Amino acid sequence: MAITDIRAFSHLTEDDIVALANEFDAIRRDVEDSRGPRDARYIHSVIRLQRVLEVVGRCALFGSRRRSRWIVGTAALSLAKIIENMELGHNVMHGQWDWMNDPEIHSTSWEWDQTGPSEHWKRAHNYAHHTYTNIVGMDEDVGFGILRMTRDEKWRPRNLAQPIANIILALTFEWGIALHDLSAKKELEGVPPTQWISGPDKEFAVKAGRQVVKDLVFFPALTGPAWRSTLSANLAANVIRNIWAYLVIFCGHFPDGAEKFTTEHYENETRGEWYLRQLLGSANISGGRAMDFLTGNLSYQIEHHLFPDLPSNRYPEIAARVRALCGKYDLPYTTGSLARQYWLALRTIHKLAVPDRFLKATSDDAPETSSERKFDRWRPEAPATEASTGRRRGLLTALRVHAEHAVAERRRRRGESGRRRRSATV
């Protein structure tokens, strides 16, 4: 099953976890104390860029059915929607810019260019996901109620359709998120799932209707004879934005190394253990400054989960300090290219579509699901610290030792199997 004792899994003492929490708290204080004009300039420049791209896209499509202008218009609209969704909507609604006291860039007033109401999303994401991150049975973002992403979840026949459901989810991601958030809102208010006329349902219908009219009726109608071209461009831009958001979210939450946790762990979780859960339950995407910007700096998913309400443009500098702490406490810092992280997530989607009896590993020791019990057979024999350097030996060392023993065990079994075959031949 998933991790029940994060202290045992991380190979840290209680004092280590308290010290680690204090160091994370220090990072938060330093960033909060240094927020100022350069951060304000950043977010204002992003807003200007997003608006310019949208105007360029709309103008390129206006009154023309030429293929070249369709490509330019669609590309500009796609970028505008990606920036609005990732760097603006997501981060503004996290409260990252509330410290500016600007009513136009505030978590309480921002409504994003997406089918789901922002209030629904903030309840489901800001509260539920970031409080119960990767706790199986509490965090509905573990598979979004559609995909089985951990062996801790019971296999059901519907999971056989995961590969197809995954493609549909990617293409319609904004709708998947909106319906997911609607369900969370109805559950919070005690509205039965089968009741279709309620306050949350009406809020969803109004927002979704407004988005559909804007993209599929209003802007195409403005372009007159070119309305079909504009309609197809709007649809394409929405799909491109959906696929990109889907990729970023899945690469940050579901590759190997993004751990899952149990409700038993959460019941007595300390502040330091909360930090550890965010660190061990998330994964980053490497790729440079362009990747950082286009993901809304969610390429730093680890830093975002540690400090979801700090300005996103500060995540690169925060990441340097987080990586240093991982080195100090011998903890893994899960990162990789977009292609690698998505391949690992995609492998999990397809692998867990089949019943467990067809899988080799267990829910305690699998690439996508593990617990502290994976170390029961092979634990590091070295002391907790190196005598010469005083360096801790923690989870990173334990994972290395475990992997070395696992490789040796596989080689031993292959050798025994080969000897049995040769003996049978003789």
Automatic annotation (TrEMBL):
The lineage of its organism: Bacteria, Bacillati, Actinomycetota, Actinomycetes, Mycobacteriales. PANTHER family: DELTA(5) FATTY ACID DESATURASE C-RELATED, FATTY ACID DESATURASE 2. Keywords: Oxidoreductase. Residues 362-426 are annotated as: Disordered. One of its GO terms (biological process) is lipid biosynthetic process. Residues 410-426 have a biased composition (Basic residues). Residues 70-335 form the Fatty acid desaturase domain. It is an enzyme of class 1 (oxidoreductase). This is Fatty acid desaturase. The keyword NAD does not apply. It comes from the Bacteria. GO terms for cellular component: membrane. GO terms for molecular function: oxidoreductase activity, acting on paired donors, with oxidation of a pair of donors resulting in the reduction of molecular oxygen to two molecules of water. Its EC number is 1.14.19.-. Residues 370-380 have a biased composition (Basic and acidic residues).
